[in-house]
Amino acid sequence: MSSTHAQRSLAGLAYLALITALGLYFTFAAVQGDFGMFARVAINAESKALQLERDRLTAELAEIQNLTRRLSDTYLDLDLLDQQARDVLGYMRADEIAIR
């Protein structure tokens, strides 16, 4: 009878060890796994950084589109054209002084 009782207690102990190991594994996977809490925080941070970059690029694109429209054939801004000629070609008027 003690042999049967010992087998039962060993089986129960093995079952408890298996359940504990599975619980620890799933807890570890939920915290540090590929889809765990730490990965979720990293994905959220990357998402916010990419949204900020997208907003910055959208503003830059709007500025470039505005400058392009102002230099187009249908709408020519002479002040902007003068500024671009000075910047790109290095032009300056005779009455101006260049300071570097």
Feature tags:
single chain; 100 residues; mainly alpha; rod-shaped
Structural features, described:
By secondary structure, the protein is mainly α. It has a domain at 48-100. It has three helices and no strands. The protein starts with a helix and ends in an 11-residue tail after the last helix. The mean pLDDT is 88.
List the helices and strands and how they pair.
Elements: H1 2-32, H2 37-70, H3 78-89
- Unreliable stretches covering 5 or more consecutive residues: none
Q: How many extended strands?
A: 0
Number of helices: 3
Strand proportion, as a percent range, falls in under 5%
Largest sheet: none
Order of helices and strands: HHH
Rg of Cα set: 35 Å
What is the rounded distance between the termini? 102 Å
What is the molecular shape? rod-shaped
In short:
The chain is an all-alpha fold and 100 residues long. The protein has 3 helices and no strands. It has helices spanning 2-32, 37-70, 78-89.
